[in-house]
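User: Quick one: structure for sequence A, then sequence B.

Assistant: Sequence A:
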Amino acid sequence: METKPSENKTLTTDFLPLNGTDYVELYVGNAKQAAYFYKSAFGFQSLAYAGPETGVRDRVSYVLIQNKVKLVLTTPLHPDHPISGQLTKHGDGVKIIALWVDDAYDAFLQTTSRGAETYMEPQTLEDDYGILKMSGIYTYGETVHLFIERKNYSGAFMPGYKKWESHYNPEPVGLLYVDHCVGNVGWNQMNKWVKFYEDVMGFKNILTFDDKQISTEYSALMSKVMSNGNGYVKFPINEPAEGKKKSQVEEYLEFYGDEGVQHVAIATNNIVETVTNLQNRGVEFLKVPNTYYDDLESRVGKIEEDIEPLKELGVLVDRDEEGYLLQIFTKPVEDRPTLFFEIIQRKGAKSFGAGNFKALFEALEREQDARGNL
């Protein structure tokens, strides 16, 4: 009997319960070819398709899956479609971070009543596999959060899609789930969006990094990590800071043309195996100098992994009070220096690799310099 009040208090405190990331949707110039890339390079499997054959006349979407990671790749079919304008401005990139909820209608009410701008009014979709409810709000730039309620739906993805079966199904590479998604915002905009996530979505600021912690000789940025109550959804938010030269965030904002998602971090249980497979399939990663590994264990303590494979692949290691993590970052996955992916393996650590920032950003600067953008 005595536990009920505390349970009720917990429920009322977390006004926006989130079960995790439902899917990440990218607007791309050619979804058919992008789907082939993510299957071939990243080991995703075919899941669902929407387009003219399913009654969707203005666009096509391919849905890919690997364990709990779902990617949706969407392309407009007409030059005057609104998505075409976004592609001209941004190039390929993340439009939607969809969040899995138990009640999409209530999630919309809770967030819009706290000031969120409406992207999609609550709606119920239905087909032979049941009903799916969804709603949506805008966040930074043109990025959107959709709230997806699928507890009464058993189809492959959602109404309007059909199951997509393919003879071409490369082996998965061990990607498990979305660990976090990082947003880049403009000058002096980080605290505005921190407040948005606090006030509108009930998130907490769990980590803060200033320009002294995230800096090199040439550039700097600041970052705050936002997390929902159960820690299933985490959104670091970056903004530029003053430096001698252009930072990676400034380069992103220039080429994306707006604030947006910088990278998606995906978890694995075996980063050496996963990254080896990805490299063998042509995925390119940032590399740090071999000297990074000379005193690795003196910096981060004893780790279970052999250092030589980590050194060969370029995997970074960092430790916090809870344990350690291993991480590596791809180069941008399109021609504009915008969206990239992080592969991360957590061995207890809850942090985001603060000890690797300097080495990582120096690697990013070398790439910027090669592009003439530093």
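Sequence B:
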Amino acid sequence: MRVEKIATNKVRIFISYEDLSARGIDRDEIWQNGKKVQELFWDMMEVAYAEVGFEMIGPIAVEAFTMPTEGVVVVVTQVPSLPGQVDTQDSQDDELAHDPFGAFVFAFTDFEEVARLARALVNAGQLDASLYVYREVYHLYFEDESIPEENYDTVWAVLHEYGELASVTRAVLDEYGKLIMADGALEQIARLFPT
């Protein structure tokens, strides 16, 4: 296992297939939330703290990618309580303002929930959202800069009412999902499905 600190709130962890095998985890099991995988995750967090000082405080986003021969890459990011609010403790944090984690994704199992959300947020100003289908689930990708600061609390609360925060990235949605509506998806949905 190898840990690399990317930013003050983000680490990348490399786990070889040999490491997984030594723990009795096969390649398919890594995507399940079994006891062995949970133990592996907490071990990764301990190593990240010991080696690079990454302390898991508050909510996190976890992304995992497989590499054909090398193993699994896991990226763990501490996310602010509201998207876009980055703590600027030192000069390294200046890089985070341009980080792709400034965006976020919400998942919805039913299109009707997306339509209800669109109608609920119709007066929150124009939100820069794109709608995808990925693994038979609807995903709304947001650029947080598009949300007016005065509407953050309202938008965030409504999003949680209708959907769930997802750890999928735009790159994954672009590669494996299907884009249904580009930027301005919520406005289009509210107009096309008024009630």
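Helices lie at 17-22, 35-52, 93-96, 111-120, 152-162, 170-176, 185-192. Residues 100-192 form a domain with the Alpha-Beta Plaits fold (CATH 3.30.70.1950).

User: Thanks, that's what I needed.
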